[in-house]
Amino acid sequence: MTAPDPKPQTWTILELLRWTTQHFSDLGIETPRLDAECLLASALGVDRMRLYLDFDKPASPGERDAFRELVRRRAGERVPVAQLIGVKEFWSLPLLVTADVLSPRPDTETLVAAALDRLPERDTDARILEIGTGSGAVALAIASERPRARITATDVSPAALKVAERNARKLGLEERIEFLEGSLFGPVLGRRFELVVSNPPYLAESERSQLAPELAHEPDVALFAGQDGLAILRDLVAGCTAFLAPDGGFALELAPEQAPTVAHWLREAGLGDVITHRDLAQRPRVVSARGPSPPTSEIG
Ligand SMILES: C[S@@+](CC[C@H](N)C(=O)[O-])C[C@H]1O[C@@H](n2cnc3c(N)ncnc32)[C@H](O)[C@@H]1O
Question: Whose Cα sits closest to atom 13 in ligand 1?
């Protein structure tokens, strides 16, 4: 199949969308129409809904060139759409995305919902820790829902932290979020939080060759965690009780097959109320728990 040029001489918005959707679909791209719409809207500098109002409008040669280049990179190099257009919506927040961060996934909204369940009061002034913030998606979504909470967001990647900081400023949430560089609980030694949340890397190195080609464009450090994919989840569970305030909430995103193992580890580590949360496709994607209560002698 050739790119949508030069025949016919004039391509309307609708024709460009139809051609590209078919092309992406033939290549096995998962969401062909959505991807085509996002790329065309970006090439035209409009929002996606505008395309529907302009279906019969011809695209100019300059617009077609810009679109063709985006289609080429999506189809040929399998660059994720979010990286091509530089933005991804998460929890209704428009987030900047670069090749330095994992593009936030809709599945991760399950983690945000589980975390918010652990802090049900909107007006809570809780201290919240997110480990491995990437674009800042989870920390910013929680900050937007809990307007008095103070959030600490960490990452091992300084480049990712720069993106997260830009997102916090863009959304006007920077006053309530501190960003710290370092591994696991290293940046917050000696501190305790009412909620600790993480979507850590959890893919197995051994699966690398079977993964979608898009993942090759995302940072390795955001994806892989040792041969079995459990290395970071294991460390997070082992370390968490030292950083949870009494009865503090803890929530982890993981791969569906990892849920029973991690739930078991959490109980072994002394956490209670262990819950497995399912995503929209009913797959177990998050395990949450409550940290130990204070010893009875400290109560009252
Ligand atoms: C799966 S991505 C999640 C990004 C973002 N929180 C989200 O949900 O879209 C994992 C993030 O953890 C970071 N990371 C990897 N190893 C880490 C470690 N040992 N300590 C802290 N962060 C780590 C990566 O740089 C990456 O940004």
Answer: 132
